Amino acid sequence: MVQASARRALSPAADRVLDVLGFLATQSGPVAAAVIARDLALPRSSVYQFLASLQSRGLVVHFPEDRKYGLGVGAFELSSAYLRQEPITRLGAPLLATLTDRLGESTHLAVLHGRDVLYLVEERATHRPTLVTDVGVRLPGHLTATGRSLLGAAPAAHVRALYAEDRALERRTGVGPRTYRELRAVLGRVRELGYGFEESDVTPGISSVAIAVLDREGWPQAAIATSFPSEARDPATRRDVAERLRPFAAELGRRLGAMR
Length: 260
What we know:
Beta-Lactamase; Arc Repressor Mutant, subunit A; 6-stranded antiparallel β-sheet; Tscrpt_reg_IclR_N; two-stranded antiparallel ribbon; transcription regulation
């Protein structure tokens, strides 16, 4: 068994290896070892050692003609295993059950998939209206509270790329942003408030409030939301609802490994 002191000594090296793997995951294509060393402020000799270790496990592949490195099939296998195990669903479902009990309203958990939000969990409250946010349903992200909270937390360049054309901004109930400029204003309001919301943009008479779940880099992973009849809540109470959602979003982030 490795002694505690030895584990502590090995931890920095393990961290650096994971830094290299994480860096490769953020790139649009293979990169040179020199670029990795420069951007991570690591000795080039160490980077080559880390890459060799990752390559031996299939997590990294070397492209000799280009003198570059990219993610290997082992990384794909890890991502596939992640999807099979459904961690967001498994970790989020118990939290939503508790949240629904406390709020007395239906709650849901969604992720951003392109311009849509995909609903992974819905916890329905008794004697409340049936919602369209059932598990597996996709809705336009720019219309939903979950989508707006996720888009509001994403980099502006990413949002602009998703909505390069105004015709991507479809409407369901006759309300909601019609142009990228209008969407940008909506998301500016989301960032200002710290939560996403919509009022009858998806279903007439139904409002929603959502909080984004962020990863350690500040990227949105998912969103937790609650929906309720619009007349049941004064608009001034949206902030109170958001504050009740916030600790559950933070807890899901913690469970998923986000550093707080």
